[in-house]
Design a protein that fits this description.
By secondary structure, this protein is α/β, with parallel strands linked by helices. The protein has 2 domains: 136 residues, Rossmann fold, CATH 3.40.50; 126 residues, Rossmann fold, CATH 3.40.50. It is 45% helix and 14% strand. The protein is built from 12 helices and 10 strands. The strands form 3 sheets. Strands 4-3-5-6 form a 4-stranded parallel beta sheet, with helices on both faces. A 4-stranded parallel beta sheet has the order 8-7-9-10, sandwiched between helices. Helix 5 packs antiparallel against helix 6, helix 7 runs parallel beside helix 12 and helix 10 packs parallel to helix 11. The chain is globular and about 60 Å long. The two termini are 38 Å apart. The N terminus is likely disordered.
Length: 306
């Protein structure tokens, strides 16, 4: 298990398709623009890191319920309410992060009497329990999970295949600025070093080509939600104070004296701080959330390279 909140994530050619519905006189009429050509699916998503993506991909063909929104709840310890469990029971499709991050959701999906189809993001991207669960921070992982969701939607509602293809193409186009920014950062800033208070951002850092210089002892402790040893803290502070790392990445959803100490050391030593969150703020789309953080990262790296 990884970080916890201790305070308070290829377009196909698209043919225009008319979807016909039966009329009383035996004729057919096109579905209204943007409407689903079949009865919408009931979809439950465990966490908002995936909720916005699923909503875009299902659109009018999915009634999407995301259980945990925003940054105020900890998915690790969440206790689903009766209404949440009822949603799982009635769901056609459940989308979970997996890898122990939202174990309650995986359990609820398995216990659901209707046996809904399940897309497990960790399984989709080939990770196993014990791996870093923050897979929505991996740009290629996001693509893989989105495509897996579309495939499952089409399997569950084959009469709406053309509709889902259209929504997939639109989603990939919407995400283009996000992928362009990742490419820009990878082109210009590969090799920049960073230390992280938690391994939330690591998959994105790897995609950009940043080098993780977080002291290994500290990193292991953070990954296991344990208190780092005094020597590990000393090593991290020394790396910051001597500016042997270029950036400090801080998960702002975790607070405490140690995080404050690392922040203060970075501020005193002129090491730029890059703030990230584990989940999108309320009402933020996935791509706007990620782009804002990537722009902040770019600004911080620019300061390093002045």
């Amino acid at each position: 298990m990884f970080s916890r909140w201790r305070g308070a994530g290829a377009a196909a050619a698209l043919a225009t398709t008319l979807v016909l519905v039966g009329c009383g006189d035996g004729q057919a009429a096109p579905a209204a623009p943007g409407s689903c050509p079949a009865a919408p699916l009931s979809i439950v998503v465990s966490v908002s890191q995936w909720g916005d993506i699923v909503h875009d991909l299902a659109a009018a063909c999915g009634d999407v319920k995301t259980i945990i929104h925003g940054t105020s709840l900890d998915p690790h310890d969440y206790e689903p309410k009766p209404a949440d469990l009822a949603a799982f029971t009635d769901a056609d499709l459940v989308v979970v992060n997996g890898l122990g991050y939202d174990a309650w959701a995986t359990k609820a999906a398995k216990a659901a009497g209707s046996s809904p189809a399940v897309v497990d993001a960790g399984t989709v991207v080939g990770k196993t329990e014990g791996d870093n669960p923050h897979v929505w921070y991996g740009p290629e992982f996001v693509n893989e999970v989105a495509d897996a969701v579309t495939a499952e939607l089409e399997a569950l509602l084959p009469g709406a295949r053309a509709y889902f293809d259209e929504k997939s193409v639109a989603w990939h186009a919407k995400m283009r600025p996000y992928y362009d920014e990742v490419s820009h950062l990878r082109r210009d800033f590969t090799g920049v070093t960073y230390g992280a208070t938690e391994p939330v951002f690591d998959y994105m850092a790897q995609a950009i080509g940043l080098i993780n210089d977080t002291p290994s002892g500290y990193e292991r402790a953070a990954a296991n939600e344990a208190d780092p040893a005094p020597g590990d803290i000393h090593d991290f502070l020394t790396a910051i104070e001597r500016s042997t790392i270029d950036l400090l990445v801080v998960n702002t959803q975790t607070s405490g004296a140690l995080v404050d100490q690392l922040r203060h050391a970075a501020q005193s030593s002129g090491v730029p701080i890059v703030e990230v969150t584990e989940a999108p703020p309320n009402d933020a789309s996935f791509e706007s959330w990620q782009l804002a953080q990537l722009h902040a990262l770019a600004a911080a790296i620019d300061r390093v390279h002045r």
